[in-house]
Specification:
alpha+beta; Beta-Lactamase; Arc Repressor Mutant, subunit A; 2 domains; 5-stranded antiparallel beta sheet; 8 helices; globular
Amino acid sequence: MDLDYRLAFELAPVGLCLSRNRVIVDCNQQLCETFGWSRETLTGQSFLVLYPSPEEYERLGQRMIPILNAKGHYGDDRIMKRANGEVFWCHVTGRALNRAAPHAQGIWAFEDLSAQRPVKAELTAREREVAARLLDGLTSKEIGKTLAISHRTVEIYRARLMRKYRANTTADLVHKLMAGS
């Protein structure tokens, strides 16, 4: 039996896209449904339209380069933005087709985590990044190293998150971030 790769791409249970220089070359229906855009609108668009802010788009793009250069693949949980402006948690994984030029061509998967992890509090871009790393189980020092900021700065953002989510401990904060309360 021959496998129809185009049909497999179309019917995948997660959003998939092919990219060139961080521009969407093709995408499947699940990606369109997840983000609320039509295929015609997304094709030819920069990934920027899927991010809550241009700063996050730029910062994540730069952070991925050394990881894609070293490993050829990248993955994380992050807050993304739908066409209607709603933000949501999304698991993103991707593979560079050329490690030496990681953004030149890639294959990306997007899994909507909003059912398990709703976004309730209004967070800044940096608070979203710190929250995502806390959910990965990283310490303040590890988060600081990952985000290229001091661990003391991470602690300030964690304190802000704790106030916004009315959490008493980091464990309580992580629980509330996962529950979205």
